[in-house]
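Technical note accompanying the year-one report. For the benefit of new consortium partners, we illustrate the data format agreed upon in the data management plan: each record pairs a sequence with a structure-token string. No post-processing was applied to the example shown here.
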Amino acid sequence: MSLSRSIVRAARALTIDQLPADVAAKVKIGLLDFLSCAFEARELPWGCQAIRMASAAKGPATVIGTPIRSSPADAAFANATLGHGLVREDMHAAAVSHLGVVIFPTLLAFAQQQKSSGVDFILGAVCGYEIGAAVGRAIMDQEMVRRFRPTGVTGPLAGVIAGSRLLALDEDATVSALGFAANATGGLNEWPYTGGDEMFFHPGFAARNAVTAVQLASLGARASESALDGRAGLFAAFNKTDRISEVAPFSGRPFEILSVYYKPAPACNYAQTACQAALALTMQDGFRTHDIESIVVKASSAAVGYPGCDYSGRFDRILQAKMSIQYCVAATLARGAIKESNYHVLDDPEINRLVSVTKLEPDAAFTAAYPGAQGTEVIVKSRRGIARSRMDDVIPATPDQIRERFRSACANWEAIEDMVDNLELHEDVGTLGGLAA
């Protein structure tokens, strides 16, 4: 049996009674996290550009935070871009992927095209995470991520499984949708070196391609069943055919969505723990940035080696700063906070001075623990002596923090939050799109 068919059969067999309560709860909090990011990113340049793109099409699907109704594919593109616009999205570390910013826009678009229940929405999301993460675990090693954007590869596959599950496509059609998605994967990791905007749009491309793949399959178009594991399939294209047997969704271990965490900082995954360790230093008695002479940040080799993370400037664009561990640490130390505004002061002289005296070092223990844990140590040498802050793993944003962020971003938060919290009770989850306008 092909890998595609085995994946599809496993996804179609999942029922709501097989989901532990914490899995359904994770879908709900993940949806609120996605929505909060989308609402907050509406005024950012890439958010405005995606909204304008979607406004040219007409259809049933809401562009979040706007009165625009667009086609499912164009709304999914805009909403996925918005959800990624802050660089503060969900993270599956082992797959190096942000799956929710593809899965949720795909599901929301289809739910407004065809009446769908909250139960099917939850199942679609769980299946999307399961397949996207399983493929990502197998294929996304450090060699791959230096060149290819993981979400651009895993996202279309995750979105297709989620959308096909929501629309109840039959087995053959879903296999074809997955085949089309495999043909529509993409995304290069050149952007970190220049701060290019393409990173923001990678989830948009992935979500739009997922919607298109499902639509084609539902109309009877047929893709290669061996598009994943064939001689010229996805794994062969990346020279990873030896990893095919590692793809094991629904294999008895905890559902993949439970391995997802939500970022506390609006920055690269690999800068999260560094920001938190730096913040702890600012709380020490007598701390003053002007006393700092040098900074060493120890992290995993994955963090140090990811494109854009070991970068000391010049910072001409926000994304360069959000990717740079040096900048993230320096801004946290200088401003005593982890917040979006840290990345809108690229010419701050004290932040740039601290960046210039910051050095990254790979740490063997942190490397060995990754991706199960993302440890970091920040060591500051100042005129007062040496101060250290070590964390063995990132502390994710809590559900309460996510709700607080959502409520501050959305005027209509009560109605949306009530619907999301009771998602499995709703027979027409498409109404959520109207609430999010």
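Partners are asked to follow this layout when depositing records. Residues 49 and 78 are 9 Å apart (CA to CA).
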